[in-house]
Known about the structure:
The structure is a homodimer.
Chain A: E1 2-7, H1 16-28, E2 32-38, H2 40-47, E3 57-61, H3 72-78, H4 83-92, E4 98-101, H5 105-115, E5 128-131, E6 138-141, H6 151-168, E7 176-179, H7 190-200, E8 207-211, E9 223-225, H8 228-252, H9 257-276, E10 285-287, E11 293-296, H10 303-318, H11 321-340
Parallel strand pairs in A: 1-2, 1-4, 2-3, 4-11, 6-9, 7-8, 7-9
Antiparallel strand pairs in A: 5-6, 10-11
Amino acid sequence: MIKVALDAMGGDNSPQEIVKGAVEALSKSAELSVILTGPKERIENELKQYTFDKSRLRIEDAPEVITLDESPVAAIQKKKDSSIVRGLMLLKTGEADAFLSAGSSGAVLAGGQLKIGRIKGVDRTPLATLIPTETTPSLLLDCGANVDAKPQWLLQFARMGQIYMSEVCGISNPSVKLVNIGLEEEKGNNLIKETKPLIEALPELNYQGYIESREIPHHGADVVVADAFTGNVILKLYEGVGSTLISAVRKGLMTDLRTKIGALLIKPALKKTLRRFGTEDNGGAPLLGLKGLVMKCHGNATHVEISNALLQCESFVKLGINDKISEALLKDKKIFEVNEN
Amino acid sequence: MIKVALDAMGGDNSPQEIVKGAVEALSKSAELSVILTGPKERIENELKQYTFDKSRLRIEDAPEVITLDESPVAAIQKKKDSSIVRGLMLLKTGEADAFLSAGSSGAVLAGGQLKIGRIKGVDRTPLATLIPTETTPSLLLDCGANVDAKPQWLLQFARMGQIYMSEVCGISNPSVKLVNIGLEEEKGNNLIKETKPLIEALPELNYQGYIESREIPHHGADVVVADAFTGNVILKLYEGVGSTLISAVRKGLMTDLRTKIGALLIKPALKKTLRRFGTEDNGGAPLLGLKGLVMKCHGNATHVEISNALLQCESFVKLGINDKISEALLKDKKIFEVNEN
Lengths: 341, 341
């Protein structure tokens, strides 16, 4: 049985969609068990409308809620009875194997890093997000956990990303590229220039060189590696350009009768295309390298995404991803130790 | 008379579109004079089909061409007779007031920085690009000239961007924001955290805080300031997400008869909307802070953009932007000297 602590109060549609997603996931997998964290009565009220296997769902009473406008670090330190901190403590004590939240990204990231230890071999824990491309999604990491990164961290992100894409997403020998502002040898900032020789020294990594941000939407690589500042800028600009363009197209289609009729005809096809480009459809984003698993869902997650993310947590734990990450990173470290001697 | 050296061999459509653009600009302004740099005979052949004021156009023979696959710095140092180096030398010696090229960005940037001196008060010269938004364009800088930036540089970029937007683009009291990965005080990397107090200390700057990349397409600010690595990632991702989404929409519209008819009806409106989001329509991107003016046009520039960019060079020089930049930056430096004493 895989136990996932689920923040019932996280996200725009909480607790309704979160609770519904939990019930749905339980019906889909018999090996999943969920601990909902949040105000007990409120969650019990939500649960009344559903039938589910009561032996696999319990509530951990957490009367406090961390809101989006709070300082993440301060909130984590102060609100011990919040749904996020309680969920993280369940993970820390081993009562849960994973913690999932659609709440404040900052609080989930900070909480994961402050409360949960790292697995052996891991120096920093990147946030890894699947982003839509022309073809299959690419994994972008780090999306916001570790700014002012060191070359060794990026190296580890590359390796963790490769393991995640191959083991969890089933991509065989995923290609790995490093975000840079040009493809020429001499291009890049100090971080990139120092990371390049390290990453090239790992024979097991399918490293294929630099990627310019322009190529990311064209699926330039399976795993796209960046420091958290760059990664977060990429992730949010993806959303920004996409939504602006879509709304401009929609507005443009409402200008006269001719385009209005045209718009009616293309509506379903357009919706389908644009849906494929939404960033929220690819489930949860894991904070890789922590003992246990901390996963973040988009703030506007519905029951569908919550249910998918719960099942994703289950696979992650079952597949023993953390053991594989730890093993690979310790092995990589030895390569550099040998090189140094 | 404002004299602009124009790289006749730069860009995908050279020399045809470049030469055509030069002739067009000459017909639009009587105070503009153009020096085309490139292989003399080839340009003369192109010019045969046009009538123009011969007293305001001459050719500077430059038989060599710097291609896109060459290392920019090496090419600038080696190819003294290239259209780019010759153009830059005309600027350096004062024979021209500005140099415009649609050729290799790397070579134009490196050449500008290596061959042309900075104006007084300027520590680094950012590449400033107008990017499309929901409303009017925003100025993004630095788009790729100075990686591993220092806080003082970002401060100068902010000021130069403000002057450019207000003087050249006519935006009164343009708002300035700093790209960050969150709006909270504690967010950001070291560079951003160190830049914030400096930028806040300048009373004349209409600084309005941080901007997340998501808000850039929604015209979150008139002037968007970033280090060159971040700025270049933003610029190229803008192009990448835009073009991918547009091609996906187009493909989606070709799936069946219904959508094909719809597509025909909306085609003109769609084209108009998407055109507004093209990055190439906003003329040239200046490398701010150099003695004289170095301006870069998009590689696929047509005669329309070349002509517009030539007229933009004329205004820039006529308005005395460099004097205004120098004056403002020297004044700003004094503020910090006073604070330090």
